[in-house]
Design goal:
about 80 residues, 3 helices, about 0% strand, rod-shaped
């Protein structure tokens, strides 16, 4: 019993070693939120003709490509 008490007291007498642990912390890489453009096809009525739908898709193409480029730039900045 005395040995057990001596061992416990000896453990308290030694200086404990400080350990530094590095843990990754999540930080958002996206600073500004991109606003989604309003596409012409979303404004179409269900009874619109096929020609109107095709023209709306053609008008949306440049807007879509610009928005896609912005999204790819944001994703590339995160990696």
């Amino acid at each position: 019993m005395k040995w057990l008490i001596l061992l416990m007291l000896a453990g308290c007498a030694t200086k404990s070693v400080t350990q530094e642990v590095k843990v990754p912390v999540y930080a958002a890489c996206v600073k500004d939120k991109l606003t989604r453009p309003v596409y012409e096809t979303e404004k179409l009525k269900p009874e619109s003709s096929d020609g109107e739908k095709v023209l709306a898709l053609a008008r949306d193409k440049p807007t879509h490509l610009k928005y896609e480029g912005q999204l790819e730039a944001v994703i590339a900045g995160c990696s």
